[in-house]
From TrEMBL:
Source organism, top-level taxon: Eukaryota
Organism (species): Agrocybe pediades
Protein name: DNA polymerase lambda
Keywords: DNA damage, DNA repair, DNA replication, DNA synthesis, DNA-binding, DNA-directed DNA polymerase, Lyase, Metal-binding, Nucleotidyltransferase, Nucleus, Transferase
Positions annotated as active site in the UniProt record: 753 (nucleophile)
Length: 1027
DNA sequence: TCGCGGGCTCC
DNA sequence: GGAGCC
DNA sequence: GCGA
């Protein structure tokens, strides 16, 4: 019956596309259209792979050879695939028996126009709050009043697609209860039924058996996982019977026509059927705090109890016990020094010079009850303190200014005493530097370190900012407002132009580059002016029309610049980098800048400007001459509240200044943390990565930990992946562990490993971790539904290959999803070409719209992110409720039809309540009637119309981006999940994961509003790639 | 020393 | 309620 | 393993 190869299918499809719209000339499509253009194209490989597979009866995976029992399946396929691909090239077109792939071609034709071919799209339109009424179904050829760029990835909503859809009944909610059997029972039936049979056995048409078929028959009162289940009916589920005549008509018609579709059916039912539907679903608690959760918490608390709590007390007391190196000591010498170093920190409330004394007693301290420390503990404490010296005690509260004074004294004494010199470049010598750390009232450890380093660089650190004396400002304040507080100014404009203001990162850059000579640094310093653009991104200013990031000609915080210095100067580093200038310094500077592209603050080029087309933006920059920030100060201040909760942006490493001063090779292991991953659009570094070898090794190690999957391993994986990401985005070759250490997310241990890789080219740890069991477990974990523990269990049972599993060696048992996963091991672990995802979606969407033309059906996941290949297909279904109707009940019907038309082949997980507005389905699908088409993972997700934005955001990912944005929401006091963004979420202080109050929904309808509230610059789906 | 996402289904 | 998935 |  299958008459056409996938390749042919694509070819034909492309032909159609071509006819429909000549302008759609996407790369991938061209590739698939013309073999000769790309001999080894994925399409070819793919089809070749299909051929290979055909050599294996029953479409199962090629057997795994004993010796090479690991990933051999894929590898074998891969090799054979390549062979075949070569053959395929020569092997022109075989006899093409043109049979229509699918009668729906006519349908999908129209859809074609709107199918995204490539990543970029201009803006999401899918989230429109005001969906147009569904287009009429008359015109087969779509009027495209949307630019090609517009109708991209996200444009799958019905309001943009003109698909000839049969009018149908509105979704009818099945009214009767089908013999009390709920879905789960059906699922179980099916499981049992299937389990009896060997997974390999040629399955009877699954559509016959699918429990899906019975979905719509139950109006299913939400059982909420009631422990009791109705007695099982072991017989195969019966053929579905739709209760509602109209629906039945449609279905029958559809089926009768053997998916010829488009039966001219009756017009939609108008009456609102069940308005309560949505409300019902809304009633579902957002968070259920099952008592079990609390129990487990209690358990955990109990477990840690003594230790943790005592520790806390200890810590506090430790703090107390610390020698209070406060003002008293410092104040003394204050007078002597006419020098002018100034330090600040900012965001706190009182910008007005706070009385120093107060500082030493923070409110925190006051809160603490008098610590009761046992003698033993006290002793321990003392020990810790002794050895701790370098080891991070909480810094005694001290203001930045006071610390600066103290520092000065210390430096002088040290100099007198031993004449010891820091090896640090003295490039700040003779400069009166005011440092703004972001919190005037409290010199954090990080602030202290930075100040120390600044001193070591020869600066005259000023305790306070005095425009008459201060010659330079260095800042790592998290916001403009914070810095202004440090400076005790109201506006950046008040900073004289002659005072260059640079960010802390800039200092690092200089320290980093030993090749710089003094003069160069000076020149650079004078040229590097903050001009507040570094803050722009954080404040989202660039989103405002009136603000255009501008070179430092800014009046606000500017250099001692002559008027003429404008764009040229500022854009220099960019240009240098772009033109691979021979001027190494610029190159390096630029490189540094790029490397920290994730950093909100990274001089001298603003990230904003960097992100955009440099020439264009530079041009614009030149036009602006008034302070673009002025109007945003208020906003900045307001924002500060939020930002203060951010991870600081300028934390220095841990090395303790007191001690490290003596170390000859003390390096400023200072690193700027980079704000939120989700905030920075970052095009993946293209081209060759100079650190590929390091990445590979780390990746290897990461994979090993992934397989091991212990609780520790889990976080190692997270950690390594962060490092790998950082390395990927690092434009230059990392030359030492120390250098790597400076990247965000790279800690001591990872830096050591990197060092090892750099010096030896290898990583011993890999060999150490890599054992046979790991390989096998990794193999098994590729099976759907198999994680580490099950894989390990099987390994222990004596299974070492997939064949072993198939033979149920050692008496292992597989659940139904696992059996399916094993059966299609190869398919499921192979990514599909984007084309194929599109083709499948094209088949599905019209079927959904046939059920209800007002449905919104969107494809999400990696497809929406524009990836060239997709691991699975995620489809979001929802429906506007303005007419009082919902999509309840649509999913089961759709699934049934998809089974009937052989698109869906296997179910992996069924929604608990398919009638719910919110349901999830997981299964396998393929292109029907395409010979050897692979089984692909597919997920359906239905959500209430009001949550569509959150769901879209959530399911579009990528996962790294998701984590980042969730975390940011979290820190900002919100909670983000696939249902929406919530505020006033109250979390259990003992376990922040526990929500005591699920809060108030503040956004969920569109992605944009969520981005906006979280202050994340809007990013198109394809820009959300982080992993 | 603690947290590192959160919600769902399967069994 | 642990395991697994997304 | 990292960072607070």
């Amino acid at each position: 019956m299958p008459e056409m190869s996938l390749e042919e299918y694509y070819a034909e499809q492309d032909e159609r596309l071509n006819r429909a719209d000549e302008s759609m000339d996407d790369y991938v499509k061209r590739v698939s259209r013309n073999k000769n253009l790309m001999p080894a194209s994925s399409v070819q490989q793919h089809s070749a792979a299909l051929e290979v597979r055909q050599e294996h009866p029953t479409l199962t995976i090629p057997s795994v050879s004993g010796q090479n029992a690991t990933i051999s399946t894929n590898r074998e396929i891969g090799r054979a695939t390549k062979r075949k691909a070569a053959e395929a090239e020569a092997d022109a077109l075989g006899p093409i028996r043109r049979q229509r792939i699918d009668p729906e071609h006519g349908l999908s034709h129209a859809v074609d126009n709107h199918l995204p071919e490539s990543a970029p799209s201009t803006h999401s339109r899918s989230d429109s709050l005001h969906p147009k009424s569904p287009v009429t179904r008359t015109s087969p050829k779509v009027e495209r009043n949307v630019s090609p760029a517009m109708d991209d990835i996200e444009s799958f909503t019905i309001d943009e697609i003109d698909v000839p859809v049969p009018a149908s009944t509105s979704h009818n909610k099945p009214k009767d209860i089908h013999e009390g059997r709920n879905t789960r029972q059906f699922a179980q039936d099916k499981r049992r039924f299937r389990q009896v049979r060997s997974p390999q056995a040629p399955a009877a048409s699954t559509s016959e058996l699918s429990p899906i078929l019975s979905f719509s028959n139950k109006s299913y009162r939400k059982p909420s996982r009631s422990p009791k289940r109705a007695p099982l009916d072991l017989g195969p589920p019966k053929r579905p019977r739709l209760d509602l005549p109209r629906a039945a008509n449609i279905l029958q018609a559809t089926e009768n026509q053997k998916s010829t579709d488009l039966p001219a059916l009756e017009p939609p039912l108008s009456p609102i059927e069940d308005v309560s539907l949505e409300e019902a679903s809304a009633k579902k608690p957002l968070v259920n705090q099952s008592s079990s959760l609390f129990l487990s918490i209690q358990e955990r608390i109990a477990k840690h109890s003594g230790g943790a709590k005592t520790d806390k007390v200890l810590k506090l007391s430790k703090k107390r016990a610390l020698p209070d190196f406060s003002l008293n000591e410092v104040a003394v010498d204050l007078g002597n020094k006419s020098s002018s170093m100034c330090v600040s920190s900012s965001p706190s409330s009182n910008p007005q010079s706070p009385p120093p004394q107060k500082k030493t007693k923070t409110s925190k301290d006051n809160q603490e009850p008098e610590p009761k420390i046992s003698a033993a503990k006290g002793a321990k404490l003392a020990t810790e303190q002794r050895k701790g010296k370098g080891k991070k005690e909480k810094p005694a509260p001290i203001t930045a200014a006071d610390f600066a004074r103290k520092l000065k004294v210390e430096f002088e004494e040290a100099a007198k005493a031993s004449g010891k010199k820091h090896r640090r470049s003295k490039f700040l010598e003779g400069k009166n530097v005011f440092f703004s750390g972001g919190d005037w009232n409290y010199a954090s450890e990080s602030t202290r370190k930075k100040m120390t380093i600044i001193m070591q660089c020869g600066a005259n650190l000023m305790p306070e900012y005095d425009p008459e004396v201060t010659t330079h400002i260095i800042t790592c304040a998290p916001s403009v407002g914070a810095m202004l507080q440090d400076l005790k100014l109201k506006s950046l404009k008040q900073i004289p132009r002659r005072i260059p203001t640079v960010t802390w990162d800039w200092v690092l850059t200089v320290l980093d580059d030993h090749r710089l000579d003094r003069q160069e640094i000076d020149t650079r310093l004078e040229n590097a002016v903050i001009e507040c653009t570094p803050y722009a991104e954080r404040l989202d200013l660039y989103k405002f029309e009136s603000y255009k990031p501008r070179p430092r000609a800014s009046r606000s915080v500017s250099a001692n610049s002559e008027e003429g210095r404008t764009c040229e100067n500022v854009s220099r580093p960019i240009n240098a980098a772009a033109s691979s200038s021979s001027e190494s310094n610029d190159e390096r500077l630029a490189a540094h800048d790029v490397r920290h592209s994730a950093a909100p603050i990274s001089p001298p080029i603003s990230p904003t400007r960097r992100a955009s087309n440099s020439t264009a933006s530079t041009r614009q920059d030149c036009k602006k001459s008034i302070d673009p920030l002025a109007e945003f100060y208020d906003q900045a201040r307001r924002q500060k509240e939020v930002e203060d909760g951010w991870s600081s942006i300028g934390d220095v490493g841990d090395s303790d200044s007191d001690e490290t001063d003596d170390e000859p090779d003390f390096q400023p292991v200072a690193r700027a943390k980079k704000g939120w991953t989700c905030d920075n659009k970052q095009a993946q570094m293209s081209g060759d990565c100079p650190n590929e070898d390091i990445i590979n090794k780390l990746n290897e190690l990461m994979e090993l930990h992934k397989v091991k999957g212990g609780s520790e391993d889990r976080w190692r994986v997270v950690s390594y992946s962060k490092t790998i990401r950082a390395l990927r985005n690092h434009p230059t070759r990392i030359r030492s562990g120390n250098e790597a250490r400076r990247l965000p997310g790279v800690g001591e241990k990872t830096a050591q490993k990197i060092e090892e890789i750099i010096t030896t080219g290898d990583l011993q740890r890999i060999k150490y971790e890599n054992t046979n069991d790991v390989e096998v477990i990794r193999l098994f974990q590729g099976i759907y539904g198999v994680g580490r523990s099950i894989a390990f269990k099987w390994y222990q049972a004596g299974c070492h290959t997939l064949e072993d599993l198939r033979a149920r060696k050692g008496g292992v048992t597989l659940t139904v999803p696992q059996a399916i996963g094993l059966k299609y091991y190869d398919d499921i672990n192979t990514r599909m070409p984007r084309e194929e995802a599109r083709a499948i979606f094209e088949l599905i969407k019209p079927k959904a719209l046939a059920i209800d033309p007002k449905l919104s059906v969107q494809i999400m996941g990696s497809y929406r992110r524009g990836k060239a290949d997709c691991g699975d297909i995620d489809i979001l279904i929802t429906r506007p409720t303005d007419d009082g109707e919902t999509h309840a009940g649509v999913l089961p019907r759709l699934l049934r039809e998809l089974h009937a038309s052989d698109i869906l082949t296997e179910d992996l997980a069924l929604p608990e309540d398919p009638e719910d507005l919110e349901a999830t389905y997981r299964g396998l699908c393929h292109l029907p009637k395409v010979e050897g088409s692979r089984q692909r993972r597919i997920d359906f997700l239905t959500v209430p119309w009001t949550s569509r934005g959150a769901a879209l955001l959530y399911y579009t990912g990528d996962d790294i981006f998701n984590r980042a944005i969730r975390l940011k929401a979290n820190v900002m006091g919100y909670a983000l999940n696939q249902k929406g963004l919530f505020k006033n979420v109250i979390r259990d202080p003992r376990d922040r994961r526990i929500k005591l109050d699920s809060g108030v929904l503040i956004a969920s309808e569109t992605e944009e509003e969520i981005f906006k509230i979280l202050n994340v610059p809007w990013q198109e789906p394809h820009e959300r790639v982080r992993g």
